[in-house]
Amino acid sequence: MSALPRRIAFSARDGLRLSALEWPGDPRAVPLLCLPGIARTALDFTGVALRHRGRRRVVALDYAGHGESGRAADPARYRVEMAIRDLMDALAALHLHRVALLGTSFGGILGTALGVLRPGALAALALNDTGPRIEPTGIEEVRAFIGRDPAFASIEEAAAFLRQTLPPLGIPEAGWRAVAETTYASGPDGRLHPRWDTRILQAMPREAGPTELWPLFHGLPEIPLLLIHGEASTILSAETARRMREARPEMAFVSLPGIGHARTLIEPASLTAIDRWLAELG
């Protein structure tokens, strides 16, 4: 079986081209749907997909304005309610009737919304450093990053920038080049630009306070849950993680000391936790 994924293109209901990566697997098993963070793409889940392909189908989505998906004429198209609608369209277009959903940051928020809006579609939910309260400090850090296009001259320059800018992620020195390659892509001018439309910043909420989504979390169905928390995260606080565990004591939990937002899901503790979470589905 080839380790290379298949790139799938499909249309949202308004005609915008959307894209996903697919690794084939046993059609009898519940498929794994992976949703990236707001400044990330489907490429982030290659490691997880290679670990589980064959045993189950793995699909990773590029949101509108990200990766190989189309860029919108109006940045208002990138609002969160539109992303939820696109997720519904992706489930239909990709024949994903019931999924285990692994969501990083923004992807976890979309997964939580799916569990309330279409509970029958969600067989299990794993949240990578995200929850029902998003801290304002973390939101401002994301805003500062997502709207910036440094237009790097080389991948080495991009890797150095990310190493200095991103929070502690436990990435070895030699690993930053790979992070840069999944963050930036060569443009027509020969320079490296973000793999997302920086106008997404215009669609992000501007509220100064925290984002509170507790009703969505409390409305999740009784399904296998997993929370991966970076202890140095500015997005998901220790207090919010504690409240989530109190509300859903059966939820599996992994705490990563010294790690910020959002872990890349390559360390053994996260991979083992994901293995166990999926094993609950058979």
Q: What is the CATH fold-level name?
A: Rossmann fold
- CATH class placement: Alpha Beta
Tally of discrete structural domains:
1
| Largest sheet data | 8 strands, mixed
Succession of helices and strands:
EEEHEHEHEEHHHEEEHEHEH
End-to-end distance = 22 Å
CATH architecture call: 3-Layer(aba) Sandwich
Low-confidence stretches are none
Helix content: 25-40%
Q: Which structural category fits the helices and strands?
A: alpha/beta
Strand content: 15-25%
Can you give the mean pLDDT?
95
Question: What best-fitting shape do the alpha-carbon axes yield?
Answer: globular
The CATH superfamily bears the name: Alpha/Beta hydrolase fold, catalytic domain
Output the radius of gyration: 18 Å
Q: How many strands appear in the DSSP assignment? A: 12
Output the strand order for the largest sheet. Answer: 1-2-4-3-5-6-11-12
Helical stretch count? 9
Q: Topology of this protein?
A:
Blueprint: E1 6-11, E2 17-23, E3 32-35, H1 46-52, E4 58-62, H2 80-93, E5 99-104, H3 106-117, E6 122-128, E7 133-134, H4 136-146, H5 155-165, H6 176-183, E8 184-186, E9 192-194, E10 211-212, H7 214-218, E11 225-230, H8 238-247, E12 252-256, H9 268-279
Parallel strand pairs: 3-4, 3-5, 5-6, 6-11, 11-12
Antiparallel strand pairs: 1-2, 2-4, 7-10, 8-9
Helix pairs in contact: 5-6
Give a written overview of the molecule.
With 282 residues, the protein is α/β, with parallel strands linked by helices. The chain has a single domain (6-147, 208-279), classed as 3-Layer(aba) Sandwich (Rossmann fold). Helices cover 32% and strands 20% of the residues. An 8-stranded mixed beta sheet has the order 1-2-4-3-5-6-11-12, sandwiched between helices. The protein has a two-stranded antiparallel sheet with strand order 7-10. Strands 8-9 form a two-stranded antiparallel sheet. It is globular and about 50 Å long. 43% of the residues are buried. The model has no long low-confidence stretch (mean pLDDT 95).
